[in-house]
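Ticket #4471: structure output looks truncated?

Reporter: J.K.
Steps to reproduce: submitted the chain below (170 residues) through the standard prediction queue, then opened the result file.
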Amino acid sequence: MRVQDVIRGDKQNLTVGDWGNGKAPKAKFPLSKAGKKAWSFGSAWCWRFAEFQIGERQFVLRLLFCDDKRKAHIHLGLRSNRDTIVLCSYEYHVDHETGWHLHTLCGDKNNIDIAPIGTVVHGPWVKRLPGARAKHNRTEFKDSMHGGLKAWLWGETVRFFRLSTKDELF
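Returned output as attached by the reporter:
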């Protein structure tokens, strides 16, 4: 199974947690090999977790954002025993001035069964889409819509990762 198959897949048993800020529960997205930086964000950062299944596999989304810094990270992970295999990171950084981009597994390594366990997405097997100097189609970071930035970012998460929200209210 490839990362694209997960994003496009038929998600079952979607559960969405409440919004929180500051220290996030590590048990929701365990990363055994990631350093402190994967979890050290201050009280200005907000977070939300969602979980779903595709077949017998359990996946988790971790949405992190800081309005003051105009940054957002949405990590897609595959549960593996007591750890997480991070498959991709959909990100926005205002300091990059480029827009939304994806860091994901690529090439021969675009197989979720052989992806590295317990670390964030980086290394020679990861590709940035679109490239750093390429034109980015999505450049917004909207906080002025109804519901504010949280509602807009959750909408982006639902859109990009193709989460079904037909019967749920989030």
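Triage note (M.O.): checked the attachment and the full token line is present. Residues 3-160 form one domain.
Status: closed, working as intended.
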